[in-house]
Amino acid sequence: xxxxxxxxxxxxxxxxxxxxxxxxxxxxxxxxxxxxxxxxxxxxxxxxxxxxxxxxxxxxxxxxxxxxxxxxxxxxxxxxxxxxxxxxxxxxxxxxxxxxxxxxxxxxxxxxxxxxxxxxxxxxxxxxxxxxxxxxxxxxxxxxxxxxxxxxxxxxx
Length: 157
Prior knowledge:
The protein is mainly α. The chain has helices spanning 2-8, 13-17, 21-30, 33-44, 50-55, 72-77, 81-100, 105-119, 133-145. The chain is globular, with a radius of gyration of 16 Å. It starts with a helix and ends in a 12-residue tail after the last helix.
């Protein structure tokens, strides 16, 4: 797996060594199988979106807006109103789950903030300190993991 990640994400061995694999694995073990598979597909860029469908000779256009090539990032940025609403509902659901699981707000708020920033939507839970050391640490760690990570700086373009 390490070799695949190194090649897939053009990631240096030193960077791979900084990933907290057990922190990734523990929550995944608690997921239902279909959730774990979808999470893995999202992490490694294997979701069945337009860019994947194109490899099989299918249309790569977003079926919701019809205006863009459907990529994983486009799923977060599609202008289709139903897609935007679903994204907002998913963020609210994620927050509820994180609160239920006892994750501190200084952890989940920056995470949600980065999703909102990447998706170009307003953060629904604004009352948190984006300049705090923990926020900056979380954001920097996430951005440095892999160049193509779902919330990486390259995704904001």
